[in-house]
Amino acid sequence: MHDQVNPAPRLDNQDPVLFGQTPSQTVGPFFHYGLPWKGCADLIGDSEIGARPELFPAEHYVLASPTAKGEVAGEPIVIEGAVLDADGKAVSDAMIEIWQADAAGRYVDGSSHSGFIGWGRASTGEDGVYRFVTIRPGRVDDQQAPHIAIGVFGRGVIKRLATRLYFEDDAANAADPILALVPAERRQTLIARKVGQAWRFDIVLQGDRETVFFDI
Amino acid sequence: MNPNFKREDAGQPPSLHAPYASTVPRSPRQPLVRIPHTLTETTGPSNAWPRLMGGAMADLTTQHKAMPQGQRIIVSGRVLDEDGRPVPNTVMEIWQANAAGRYIHKKDQWDAPLDPNFTGAGRVITDDEGRYQFVSIRPGAYPWGNHHNAWRPAHIHLSLLGPAFATRLVTQMYFPDDPLIEIDPIANAVPLPYRQRLVSRFDIETTKPNWALGYLFDVVLRGRDQTPFEDDHHA
Ligand SMILES: [Fe+2]
Hints:
The complex is a heterodimer.
Chain A: E1 76-84, E2 94-100, E3 119-123, E4 129-135, E5 147-154, E6 157-167, E7 191-195, E8 198-200, E9 203-204, E10 214-215
Chain B: E1 4-5, E2 33-34, H1 39-42, H2 49-53, E3 72-81, E4 91-96, E5 121-125, E6 131-137, E7 142-144, E8 150-152, E9 155-160, E10 169-174, E11 201-202, E12 213-216, E13 219-221, E14 224-225, H3 229-234
Parallel strand pairs in B: 3-12, 3-13
Antiparallel strand pairs in B: 1-14, 3-6, 4-5, 4-9, 7-8, 9-10, 11-12
Bound molecules: fe (ii) ion (FE2).
Residues 152, 155, 157 of chain B line the site of fe (ii) ion.
InterPro entries (chain A): Intradiol_dOase_C, Intradiol_dOase_core, Intradiol_RC_Dioxygenase, Protocat_dOase_a
Pfam families (chain A): Dioxygenase_C (PF00775)
Organism (chain A): Caulobacter vibrioides (strain NA1000 / CB15N) (Caulobacter crescentus)
């Protein structure tokens, strides 16, 4: 009879000598059937924006649509923008995530069973454009201007790029402590502008108009 | 006040790693702006994942009419913070190629067979001790266009939210017996020895007789940090 013993392990994260943060890796180009669920970019309704079901067969659309969201207080808004690379080319395989407070400036962690959950995800289309439907957030902790935290993922993006969206018409921007840490000449990369019915927020990964990304 | 989270450790890869060619036009050149952790960074939808995404899907081999082709595997482990504390009730999303190394994705044009019985997408939730487990098939290696004769090592993509915006992590799990890891520009964006944190461990205890091979993979998220921002800024 054989003993049931493991082969000698190589050094890995189970080993106390090496133990530490698991390194980030890219989402790659093929995440569309595995990350965006039905409705992931609509934080207040049941539209199915944010996913790209045309990129895989219907019988493999296994990511469920969660239950209806119910009434949400606040001003509904649309946020949209293009993700662009160093050459100004549309990034058609990026994924954007958002995290935001509700209209009263509160973050809902889900421990209550009602209320707005300010977390969403959207794939970019072939034109590099992502789109969210949400509500306009309130001021956070009485100091920060209304803002939305943004994470950028994609093929060629080894680790998440973190940025923030602020609203062009908000007087509180002038005293926002995070905006104040950004060199004045680059601050406009964090400001969404109202274009038609939507708040436009392009994300430029590199170049003259490079978006400010944060070390958080 | 919510405690802050620790910053990146030395094992995190840089955004620009030129051997992985598509990082060159897609990584920022300006320095990152270091900001303190506010309520925005220290909160997250930690308990809201089922309301956000829907229920768990822990068996990737039973989503269609028949069993998928390939070597059945059990992947098990814990989600911990870097101080070794379990991260309970957090979601791990999973996606991968099939046994032949082909993704169920229209832009994957490699000439390897699709498997109608395998999608390769799943989702698990950690228990009170941070434990998770899912069943799948071992993905195949696949070629890609990064350089001549480039092949990705077999890997499973994993996505974790953790307790806060600051702890978000997307990674890839590799297999311990795979010679392609050493020559893969994506895995090698992570300097040694830290690259080894991405490699799972074969485990005979997790292995089920006459049924499936078992692999252990612990995922480690950022830990809590009580250091005030100013100190950490001048350190
Ligand atoms: Fe992959």
